[in-house]
Amino acid sequence: MPVLNFQEWMQNVGVFEEIMKGFIIGVLASAPMGPVGILTIQRTLNKGRWEGFATGIGASISDILYAVITGYFMYLVVDIIENPIIALWIKLVGSLLLFAFGIYTFRSIPKHKVVDEETPIETKHKLTGFIISGFAITVSNPLIILLFVALFGQFTFILVDNWFTQLMGYLSIVAGALCWWFALTWLVDKARAKFSHKVVWWINRVIGIVVMVVSSLMIVYALTGHTFHYIPFSDDPTPQIVE
């Protein structure tokens, strides 16, 4: 019976597993209420749900751009990061970065308002303009690359010689981001009468707690070296943790 350690199991994933990892990465990268999140909420409240969602679409385009850039450079050094010792350190450092990001999100106090001055293109082509402005605000913060490095390292997102599965993973990052913005604008639109700055503050606190818990669990996995029994031809091919 073959035994895969955690790192090997994460590398020997199928399309479904990669889609799930990409979806989670997309949500985690989009969820914190930074400037583009506040702007999306404002536009949803002041202009309409689809105007707010268009802003989120622009942010999602920026996210996938930075995700591809991050993935490309990690792929170039894949021979290095696949070394078990280096992979362990990447996971540990990535976990610590994610934990710090969770603390930052938990303690952050979103601004009451982000300046929202319509540009000529927004006035002429409303939704297109909102997409462009959402993209511009998000792409102006290249530090998100550090977040993607941490997330990719945590979830062992980069796969070698499996371009189709990797492509599906990148598409799922977009899907995760879009689902987050769709759900957020739907919630804001439905609860617009009760939606306040305090709600945004609580959203950040919940997201921060979730990120800290997930990163803590990944630290435990990395340090304890869980292994998985994998039976290729059994009726249930799901790897199982063994101590």
Keywords:
243 residues; mainly alpha; 3-stranded antiparallel sheet
Walk me through the structure:
- This protein has 243 residues and is mainly alpha-helical.
- 73% of the residues lie in helices and 4% in strands.
- It has a 3-stranded antiparallel β-sheet with strand order 1-2-3.
- It is globular.
- Mean pLDDT is 76; it is low at 226-243.
Topology of helices and strands:
Layout: E1 3-5, H1 6-11, H2 15-30, H3 35-46, H4 49-76, H5 78-81, H6 84-107, H7 120-124, H8 126-139, H9 144-155, H10 163-190, H11 197-224, E2 227-229, E3 240-242
Antiparallel strand pairs: 1-2, 2-3
Helix pairs in contact: 2-10, 3-4, 3-10, 4-8, 4-9, 4-10, 6-9, 6-11
Q: Helical proportion?
A: over 70%
Instruction: Write out the strand line-up for the largest beta sheet, numbering strands in chain order.
Output: 1-2-3
Name the poorly predicted regions: 226-243
What would you call the shape? globular
Alpha-carbon distance between the termini? 16 Å
Question: Care to give the gist of this entry?
Answer:
This protein has 243 residues and is mainly alpha-helical. It contains 11 helices and 3 strands.
